[in-house]
Write a structure and sequence with these properties.
The chain folds into three domains: about 120 residues, Triger factor/SurA peptide-binding fold, CATH 1.10.4030; about 130 residues, Chitinase A, domain 3 (Roll), CATH 3.10.50; about 110 residues, Chitinase A, domain 3, CATH 3.10.50. About 50% of the residues lie in helices and about 20% in strands. It contains 14 helices and eleven strands. It starts with a helix and ends in a 10-residue tail after the last strand.
């Protein structure tokens, strides 16, 4: 009996010790349910660290941690919705494609993979975490191109009107680094919602005019999809400015906030973070040919990738590019010409193709790589400097109009899918992360 009693006491002591250890190391918690997915506190904590590190590197002051955690949680919810949609469409990013993307990112920053891994560690990310994050970003980008692109149409009349307006305005080739804050309004027929949004916009404008950091305010307060990037929209020429701000931006000084602007999506404030002039009118053109293998209902993503890699091996073994393009390319127009796309101007192609073309050396194969149209191999046959011609201006005008419309439609689409999703917050956002 005494032996049994001692055994029970020992078991109880071990159990209590185990419970104490569990208390010191709490299990990961679910902080939100999003349709068929869950978001864990560890995911939020990791993303908060990454965003904070990036903002610190940009010199952007951080908002309070609970505010940043709340903004990150909302972005994780939006990402989860999009990734589930991509999965439902059967979209995937293969390991080979992801490896090549990581190598290209490192190369563009003049880093080896080992140096790239060390840079990621400084941002609080392991190489594996960064790889997964980039995979998600690639899937989300493909989904947006597939679904939002269908909502954007640019007519020839719009291009002609754009060129006429641009000809009447001499901006001296100035480019603007823009940043943007959006206070969204879902229903302009709801007077209370409109009044609340306008009051918030006026409060933020007062803070900015008093010297608040624009990017910090954007991170903490903006409803735009790029809020966690400090609201930065990137470099835009006068012709590429969104319609809403085209007449406002040229009159702003650097860091001066605009007045409150209203659109169908809400109230906006923009600023110029920097300016630069463009004295040259020359552009570098590339004469390019490519082979495209397109996934279809009958050709799976995996099969399409296998086919393009087989084509690449055949090219490396010495088979003729033009012959294979005529036989195998799913781009019927260029395929009939041996894959020839002619002289291509900067900004004329979709981003993935543009990047591959920029990275390519003359006479060397580039790829396989994936764009929204499918799998490509390309070869830059020649490069030349060419003065701006009318067709280049038209292509740039069409791209600028497309980008304006895409930005608006993307914001509308994100709001729609967010409103339609089932989201159950398990913890108050401000309390979901305290580490």
């Amino acid at each position: 009996m005494q032996v049994i009693g001692k055994a029970l006491l020992l078991l109880l002591a071990l159990t209590m010790a185990s419970l104490a250890q569990a208390e010191r190391k709490p299990l990961d918690r679910i902080i939100a349910v999003v349709n068929d997915d869950v978001i864990l506190q560890s995911e939020q904590d990791s993303r908060v660290r990454t965003v904070a590190s990036r903002l610190n590197a940009q010199g952007t002051p951080l908002p309070p941690r609970d505010v940043l955690a709340e903004r990150v949680l909302e972005q994780l919810i939006i990402d989860s919705i999009q990734l589930q949609m991509a999965a439902n469409f059967g979209m995937r990013v293969s390991d080979n494609e992801l490896n090549e993307t990581m190598q290209n990112i490192a190369a563009r920053n003049n880093l080896s993979l080992a140096q790239f891994e060390r840079e990621l560690a400084r941002e609080g990310l392991t190489y594996r975490e960064a790889r997964e994050q980039i995979r998600r970003e690639m899937l989300i980008s493909r989904l947006q191109q597939r679904l939002v692109d269908n909502r954007v149409r640019v007519t020839q009349r719009e291009v002609s009107n754009f060129l006429a307006a641009e000809a009447s305005r001499d901006d001296g080739g100035i480019e603007y680094l823009l940043a943007h804050i959006l206070i969204s309004v879902n229903n302009f027929n709801n007077d209370a919602e409109v009044a609340e949004a306008r009051a918030k916009a006026e409060r933020l404008l007062s803070e900015l005019q008093a010297g608040a950091d624009f990017r910090q305010v954007a991170v903490a307060e903006s409803d735009a999809s790029n809020a966690l990037e400090g609201g930065v929209l990137g470099w835009r020429t006068g012709g590429q400015l969104p319609t809403l701000v085209a007449d406002v931006v040229p009159g702003l000084s650097v860091t001066e906030p605009s007045e409150i602007l209203q659109s169908g999506s809400g109230f906006h404030i923009v600023t110029i973070l920097d300016k630069r002039g463009d004295a040259s009118r020359l552009v570098e053109q590339s004469r390019v040919r490519h082979i495209l293998i397109r996934p279809t209902d009958l050709v799976s993503e995996q099969r399409a990738e296998e086919r393009i890699r087989d084509v690449y091996r055949r090219l490396q073994d010495g088979e003729d590019f033009a012959v294979l393009a005529r036989e195998l390319s799913d781009d019927v127009v260029s395929g009939s010409a041996g894959g020839d796309l002619g002289w291509v101007n900067p900004g004329q192609m979709v981003p993935a193709f543009e990047q591959a073309m920029t990275d390519a050396r003359v006479g060397q194969l580039q790829g396989p790589f994936r764009s929204q149209f499918g799998w490509h191999i390309l070869e830059v046959q020649e490069r030349r400097q060419q003065d701006m011609a009318s067709e280049i201006r038209e292509a740039e005008a069409r791209q600028a109009l497309y980008r304006r419309k895409f930005d608006v439609e993307l914001q509308n689409w994100i709001r729609e899918i967010r409103d339609e999703a089932f989201v159950d917050l398990k913890l108050q956002p401000s309390a979901a992360s305290s580490s």
